[in-house]
Amino acid sequence: MITIAAGRAESPFLHELKAINITTNRPIPYHTLRLHPHNKVILANEDGSVFIDTTQISSSDSLSISCLGYSPKTIRIDSIKSINIPTIITLSPKICQLQEVLVIPQLNLKEKTIGKKHSSGLANIPFQERKGSHIGFIVTNEKKQTWLKEVGFFINENPNKLQVMNFRVTIYEFDKISGHQSSEFRPIIGSDFIIHYDETLISNNKFCFQLNNPILLPTHALIGIEFLDDMNGQIIPFRNNIFGKSIWSKSINSDFWVKLPIATPFFLKFLEQ
Questions:
Q1: Which of 89, 156, 168, 205 has a CA between 20 and 30 Å from the CA of residue 121?
Q2: Distance between CA 239 and CA 122 in Å, rounded?
C-alpha cells in the first residue's frame, strides 16, 4: 500500500512536496500528483503541499505533477535530496486564451437550467463525495450558442450539513463519448475555475455561484464539478425522487467517466441564443 497524504506530516518518514508557480513563486493549490508506477493519485492542499511516505516507495519511482494552466512535470524519487527539507517543484504557466465572452448579445436570450431544478422531492437524500471525485453534466448545442452563467446546489437543514468546501469546475469539449475515456475530453479554459462554498452563503436552501463573465460553451461540452476537500462526515442533504437524470461521474484514480442514473443536488444555468 502506498501512502500519499495531503494533510500535515505526523511521521518522520513523511516527506513534503510543494508545487509553486515558477514566475510568481506562489503555491499552486489543488494540483494533481500521480505516483508511478503505482498509479496513485491525490490532490494537493490549498497551500500546494502533499506528503509521501518514503518507506513505501522505491528510488526508481517517479512523480508527475499537473494542474490546469501549467505545463506538467515529472521527477524521480531519487532526486529528492533530503527527507527533512520540503521538495519544491516549479511549474511553468501555459499561455492560454480563455473561452470567456465579455459581450453577450442581449436579444432573444433564454435562460436554461439542467440538473436539479427545485427543492422538492419524495425522499431525503444525504449526498456525499470523496475529495477528488467528479460529477459531470453533458451539454449539447447543435444550433445554438450557449453560455454557462451559474453553478449551484440545493442543501437542506441538517446537523451534519456541509459547512465549507472548495469545488473546481472544468469545462471539456468532446467529439465522441464512446469508451468514456477522459483523454477524449479536452479542457477549453486555461486556468482553474474554483468555487468557494460557505454555509453562510445559502439562501432559501440553495447555494449559487454566478460567473461575472459567462463562458461560451463548445457544441458538445461536459461540465465537471470536482470536490477539492474532504467532507469529513458532512453531507449535502436534499430532497429528490432518488433516481435522477443520468449524470457522469469520475473518481480521482480513474481515467474513465461513467454515466450513472442517480440524483445529485447540483444544477447549472445557461444563457441560450
A1: 168
A2: 7
